[in-house]
């Protein structure tokens, strides 16, 4: 029989790696809470047209990377429907914002999510077909200040604080403004014009993008195309006064709080819904997949989905890549040892050993429980792999309430009264 394996581009996360995952998630929850973000959980699959309308038909994500299927009707009253595993979460959050009429609160909504996303990409280190994102959105009616450049700067400052608190240093923040929907058509026209005689020398993807989505040409990673891209018009020269003032205010606020950045006039990002500020945090330690996170403003997205005017800004970070960074920084984490391994010396002590383990665990200690069928040598070998100390529980110990405890690191063996055991283990006196 052929053995079944996790599907290409997906993987199992096992301990001790999952401890790092939990640490990243806990740090995000802690930091975001200080900015008063609340958690949102949207469904893993949505109507396909949600992504087609928001992310954009011509993007790589929608045109070739989505897991889409026709969900057959099960009853006369149902219609069959095209469904898609979410490739990103902003569309789902904005759909929920509209569906639950969150604009009626008149307040800014600050929502964060943590969850898996799905894209049929070529799997490689730091790039998977099921991957996790931690993201957040600040969205609301203009009267709540959702268009303010202060929101952009605050989100960027929060990200800098998050990465620092996680212990990730050496990141860089690149920023750009892609202008408003009013600026965009003039720039795209200029880009199309400039691309006319340059595009035959460019890669096949760029030739296609020049037709369908010329902005994406700027995002091309093919080294041979870079000199050509350098010569293309810059979006900064096509921004109207309002977009320029917005960008300048974001930069001034970042300067004021000391968040370092560089301006990358070619940063356009892969989703169609972005307006004005776009950004990316990268890290040299990640190799080819160097983007830790990306995001930007999406002032027209709610309206694109049939909702009210609700400007917003958000980001998504790759949890898989954050964990890769932490692993590289600290080396492979050793599995943490339990506080004690309890070894019943015969099966007659099994029940008493479980009772003792329960007592210690209720006191908050981490305890491994052996089995009375093990020979003493085996108990010591197992205990040594799993815990800091071994607690022997034989007939004598059970009767007298005086336990034999051995510390593996020092080799020291002691008698400890059962009533003193929790205190002694806590203080690491044994
Ligand atoms: P990239 O340029 O690396 O493909 P992207 O522009 O497609 O990234 P977004 O769609 O903005 O990325 O997603 C935000 C973040 O999610 C990325 O910065 C990255 O850390 C992570 N990410 C995106 N795609 C994957 C993937 N297939 N596997 C793992 N992480 C991913
Ligand atoms: Mg991508």
Description:
This protein has 430 residues and is α+β, with helices and mostly antiparallel strands. It folds into three domains: 17-179 and 259-330, 2-Layer Sandwich (BirA Bifunctional Protein, domain 2); 183-239, no CATH class; 340-426, 3-Layer(aba) Sandwich (Rossmann fold), CATH 3.40.50. 37% of the residues lie in helices and 22% in strands. It is built from 15 helices and 16 strands. It has an eight-stranded mixed β-sheet with strand order 1-5-6-11-10-9-7-8, with helices on both faces. β12, α12 and β13 form a beta-alpha-beta unit. α1 runs antiparallel to α5 (149-166) and α1 packs across α11. The chain is elongated and about 90 Å long. It starts with 16 loop residues before the first helix and ends with a helix. Adenosine-5'-triphosphate binds at residues 88, 119, 121, 126-128, 131, 133, 269-270, 289, 291-294, 316-318, 320-321.
Any descriptors?
430 residues, alpha+beta, BirA Bifunctional Protein, domain 2, Rossmann fold, 8-stranded mixed β-sheet, 5-stranded mixed β-sheet, elongated, binds adenosine-5'-triphosphate, binds magnesium ion
């Amino acid at each position: 029989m052929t053995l079944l394996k996790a599907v290409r581009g997906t993987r199992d996360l096992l301990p001790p790696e999952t401890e790092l995952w939990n640490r990243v998630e806990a740090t995000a929850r802690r930091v975001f809470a200080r900015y008063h973000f609340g958690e949102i959980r949207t469904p893993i699959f949505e109507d396909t047209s949600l992504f087609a309308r928001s992310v954009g038909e011509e993007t790589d994500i929608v045109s070739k990377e989505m897991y889409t299927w026709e969900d057959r009707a099960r009853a006369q009253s149902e219609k069959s429907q095209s469904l898609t595993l979410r490739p990103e979460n902003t569309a789902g959050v904005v759909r929920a914002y509209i569906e639950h009429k969150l604009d009626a609160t008149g307040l800014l909504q600050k929502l964060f999510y943590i969850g898996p996303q799905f894209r049929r990409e070529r799997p490689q280190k730091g790039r998977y077909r099921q991957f996790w994102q931690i993201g957040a959105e600040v969205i609301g009616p203009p009267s709540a200040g959702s268009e303010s450049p202060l929101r952009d700067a605050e989100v960027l400052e929060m990200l800098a604080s998050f990465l620092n608190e996680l212990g990730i240093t050496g990141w860089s923040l690149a920023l750009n403004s892609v202008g408003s929907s009013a600026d965009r058509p003039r720039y795209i026209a200029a880009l199309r014009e400039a691309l006319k005689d340059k595009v035959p020398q460019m890669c096949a993807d760029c030739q296609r993008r020049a037709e369908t989505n010329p902005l994406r040409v700027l995002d091309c990673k093919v080294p041979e195309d870079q000199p050509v891209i350098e010569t293309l018009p810059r979006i900064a020269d096509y921004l109207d006064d309002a977009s320029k003032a917005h960008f300048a205010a974001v930069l001034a606020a970042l300067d004021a709080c000391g968040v370092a950045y560089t301006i990358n006039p070619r940063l356009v990002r892969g989703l169609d819904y972005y307006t004005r500020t776009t950004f990316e945090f990268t890290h040299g330690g990640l190799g080819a997949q160097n983007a830790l996170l990306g995001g930007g403003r999406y002032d027209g997205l709610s309206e694109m989905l049939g909702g009210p005017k609700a400007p917003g800004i958000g980001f998504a970070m790759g949890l898989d890549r954050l964990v890769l960074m932490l692993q590289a920084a600290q080396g492979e984490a050793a599995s943490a040892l339990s506080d004690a391994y309890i070894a019943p010396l015969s099966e007659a002590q099994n029940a008493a050993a479980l009772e003792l383990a329960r007592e210690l665990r209720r006191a908050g200690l981490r305890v491994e429980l052996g089995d009375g069928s093990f020979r003493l040598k085996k108990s010591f070998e197992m205990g040594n792999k799993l815990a800091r100390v071994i607690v022997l529980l034989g007939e004598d110990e059970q009767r007298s309430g005086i336990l034999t405890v051995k510390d593996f690191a020092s080799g020291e063996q002691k008698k400890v009264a059962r009533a003193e055991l929790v205190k002694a283990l806590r203080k690491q006196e044994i």
